[in-house]
Amino acid sequence: MDNKEIMALYNQFERIGQTVPGYEKQVNGSVVRFVSPECQGSYITYFHLDEVQVISAIQKEIHFFSEQKKSFEWKIYSTDSPANIGKHLIEQGFTREGSESFMVLELDSIQGTLPVTADITEVDDLDGIREAMSVQEKVWGTDHTSHALHLHQIKQASPEDVAVYVIYDNHIPVSSAWILYSADSPFAGIWGEAHCLNTGAKAITPRYCTRGLMMPNSGEFATSPLTHLP
After folding, report:
1. How far apart are the C-alpha atoms of 209 and 61, rounded to whole Å?
2. Which of 78, 88, 130, 164 could form a disulfide with 178 if both were Cys (CB 3.0 to 4.6 A apart)?
């Protein structure tokens, strides 16, 4: 499967067909938005626009979220159309965040397994998820309280849709990651990456940065979130 085929499937299942517990999904023409119950957290997950439509579509989304008094994020990928939408979003008042990459691994391509010697624990209550987010906070230096509450909300509403893991060293959480599953989707997303080691799988506090894994991938794609404040 080539990168074009992978992205077509990803768009179909993980962007257009995505559902998120607690969020209201709305389709506005060729734009798919998710509206958070909070002032923050809303986002545009998918769009397909041409140069004639793009400015009007962006302004409509700004107007909608401004009336709701909510900030929102517009997620764009390197394969999206139009290719210069990032430029248009910035001209309309968005702030670009750091570009990211995501990798796709076909599980059927895995030969064997890696040895695991760490104490890896799946957590499902709010205290355990908060410990997972405490690792993220140490790595990134940002507050993950709302993220912990969001993951816990998903776990309560649809426990089969998320799995949260923590690695402990002498009972101290030193690494964390979570997997998000979507019904009927061939994809499962592994989240919690950190810049301090070669891994897309987990965040690890600085003391443990040498204990990383490198995930093989069948395709790598760039994504750049842009944020608009109310």
Report:
1. 40
2. 164
